[in-house]
Write a structure and sequence with these properties.
The structure holds 3 protein chains of 3 kinds.
Chain A: H1 2-30, H2 34-59, H3 63-88
Chain B: H1 8-22, H2 27-47, H3 57-83, E1 92-97, H4 103-115, E2 119-125, E3 130-135, H5 141-160
Antiparallel strand pairs in B: 1-3, 2-3
Helix pairs in contact in B: 1-2, 3-5, 4-5
Chain C: H1 7-33, H2 37-40, H3 44-66, H4 73-107
Helix pairs in contact in C: 1-3, 3-4
Classes of the chains: A mainly alpha, B mainly alpha, C mainly alpha.
Chain lengths: 93, 161, 114
């Protein structure tokens, strides 16, 4: 019974996060400007991270945390580099 | 001792972070984490602009509570705007002057305002000490400025200056 | 590990996960719905503040109960995400202001508020 509640709610949550990912992808493709695309990419990273955390609850394994951390780190560094590039035209000054 | 631990709080926080990430409190992990904490805090000493001094821990606690409440409230507010298809939020820019000059205080204020949905810190002018804020649902400029002053800046002034 | 999940745990974790995912989805839909960049910048913070916080809280509760020890991995992720997202958003906003000002100077249509 309780396993069934958990399974269904995790399914619903993953579905919602998937819809959110599609929304960010739409904004990334449509633009219209570079900063909109980077903003959408940053949001996509965060939603992907959260999707991995829900996957971790579903499978009952803590191995997904490391992946989530890694996505968080890469997303941060990537977005900062892209924002720097927009401002100055180069990443490292 | 002072040369090895220029930032004791930072070093302790790093050690705790290491132990949490390793999920163990064995002697080996404590030694390894301690080594990492010392090296990283020495590296941070070269980068940080100055020492952080927390004046009043009670104000810090108060700030955490206030920020938590405001984040929940503004999440609900932005959600209501989003699910109402006819709502056209009247977004706008606010330029306000700050009394706060401490760099760490400004950093905390910037993160708080940006992390709250509905308001975003855009740009800080260090010479005139003014900041440009963008608000999603701007109704009354003066009310917003007063909110930032009384809810956040007052506490930050107590903590950092 | 324990064999049977208690009902209260399932319900608590379910509510947190569903509400958190809903808030995150709403934030992402805001990216699509809002008409300009400065308004869109407010949308993803819903996912990183409360949405993400609730999902990570659910995960922390779930693993703390099922593994019968305190699991606080999620706290690290939460702190990291809540601190880094404002930083990236501020950088992006400043880059956008910079680009807008260049374009406005070129077109001669200066918006005084910026």
């Amino acid at each position: 019974m309780s396993q069934m509640i958990l399974d269904w709610s995790l399914f619903a949550a993953q579905l919602m996060l998937g819809v959110g990912m599609l929304a960010t992808l739409y904004r990334m493709v449509r633009g219209p400007r570079a900063q909109d695309r980077i903003l959408a990419l940053d949001a996509l990273y965060v939603v992907g991270l959260l999707l991995l955390v829900t996957l971790g609850i579903r499978t009952g394994s803590t191995i997904y945390f490391e992946l989530a951390m890694l996505i968080g780190l890469l997303g941060f560094v990537g977005t900062v580099a892209l924002a720097k590039f927009l401002m100055r035209g180069e990443v490292i000054e | 001792m002072k040369r090895l631990f220029p930032y004791p709080v930072l070093a302790a926080a790093l050690l705790i972070l290491w132990l949490v990430l390793q999920q163990s409190i064995g002697l080996g992990q404590i030694l390894l984490g301690g080594a990492v904490a010392i090296v990283v805090s020495l590296a941070a000493a070269a980068v940080l602009p100055g020492r952080v001094r927390f004046r009043r821990l009670f104000s810090l606690l108060q700030l955490v509570v206030v920020a938590g409440i405001d984040i929940i409230r503004s999440n609900i507010a932005v959600l209501l705007i989003l699910i109402n298809p006819r709502a056209e939020p009247s977004a706008g820019f606010i330029k306000m002057e700050l009394k706060l000059t401490n760099q760490f205080g400004l950093a905390v204020l910037a993160c708080l305002l940006t992390a709250t949905p509905g308001s975003a810190w855009l740009e800080y002018d260090g010479e005139r000490n003014t900041v440009l804020i963008h608000v999603l649902d701007l109704i009354d400029k003066d009310e917003w400025i007063a909110t930032v002053r009384h809810r956040y800046e007052r506490l930050l002034l107590e903590i950092f200056e | 590990m324990i064999d049977e999940l208690p009902l209260w745990l399932a319900i608590l974790v379910s509510v947190c996960v569903v509400v958190g995912a809903g808030l995150t989805m709403a934030g992402c839909l805001g990216l699509v719905r809002f008409p300009d960049f400065y308004r869109r910048i407010h949308a993803p913070t819903m996912g990183t503040s409360m949405g993400g916080g609730l999902i990570l809280l659910a995960s922390a509760i779930f693993f703390s109960v099922t593994q019968q020890r305190l699991v606080v991995h999620e706290l690290v992720i939460f702190l990291f995400v809540t601190v880094t997202t404002p930083v990236t958003l501020m950088l992006l906003a400043r880059a956008t202001l910079f680009r807008d000002r260049i374009e406005e100077a070129r077109d001669g249509s200066a918006d005084k508020d910026k």
